[in-house]
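User: Predict histidine kinase's structure from this.
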Amino acid sequence: MPTHAIAPVYEIQRISAVPTILEAVAGMTGLRFVCVAHVTSDAWTACAVLDRLDFGVKVGEGLDVTTTLCREVRNTQQPVVIDRVADDDVYCQHHTPKIYGFQSYISIPIFRPNGDYFGTLCGLDPLPAKLSSTEVVAGMQAFARLISMQLANESSMMETEMALLDERETSELREQFIAVLGHDLRTPLSSILTGLEILTLRNADAATVPLLQRIERSARRISTLIDDVVDFTRGRMGGGIALQMRCDPALDQTLEQVISELRGMYPEREIRVELDRDINLQCDSARLGQLLSNLLKNALVHGDPALPVSVVARKVGGDFSIQVCNGGEPVPEAVLEKLFKPFWRPEIKREGLGLGLFIVAEIARSHGGGIKVDSTDDNTCFTFSMRDPGFSGEPVGEVSFGGGHA
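Assistant:
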């Protein structure tokens, strides 16, 4: 198939109604060869064919346009209708009927919605047929208009599909770029943190220590933002949140370390803690630490600063849960529905990238668990729960927590 003919053939082949239209035309006219052809000044290409004559033209194949009457239809943009070639004053001596051996012939122009010429809906037969009646011509013109309308729909769909494909490719490249950038940023950031640690160990003078501490907090904040963006990008690219599952016999120590770091970042805030000791859980403890860190930072930022924040972690049988609660105004229902969406942040406090709770939900999902939020007039509580994959006993049901703040 010539390259220039591929697109028109594809357009017609995508229209599911075309085979039915060809069948209807054959039934209405009695013609045994019917087709939709794409016609240009120098090419005739079959885009859809109904051939009960063994005429021999197949989809994608062409004819010399100078041997066809479709060229005249294109030039005049008017139908050509012949009931019987031998009796037709115009075409009885025409070379086309002699070449192809037909007596009856009809060709109706097909236009694109913008008025551009596409081709013809045409048919022929070695036997005469009554084609010039008003009913037949009107019916053929209606079928041609229907094809024209479908071409518009298909063109719009193809443009949409191409736009979506282009957007998807652009999105994938953007996310790959972000992932590579995040990886490359970690190296200089690690050097900054190492340098700060060395300067601190060398007993920096009292005037310098606050500056070093501010730099360290900023560097760790950048590190957290990089981790969030890379995790989000990995999830969007289909990789999900990466886990390193192992049996951790002291998960509570990881959680305590997270709480200790946030106490240092928010020294003015009260954080009440209830952790089961020696929590043995098959999990990615670093990821669960990240989950707690995101939940706790969210509570500290959005909770009432005059009220304490509580953290409770429990394991009962094979069921493990972490609950983080803060006091303050209840979260509106409309906001609750958006909390775990990426890049969403409330208008009143727009800290960070808005990925923290999205990553919490992804970590929960990767562990086979879930995250839920309940907000009342007293407090707002986020509860993560999961089943220990390494536990062989029977489930004990949902882990219960005490009411109010711990």
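Residues 100 and 126 are 9 Å apart (CA to CA).
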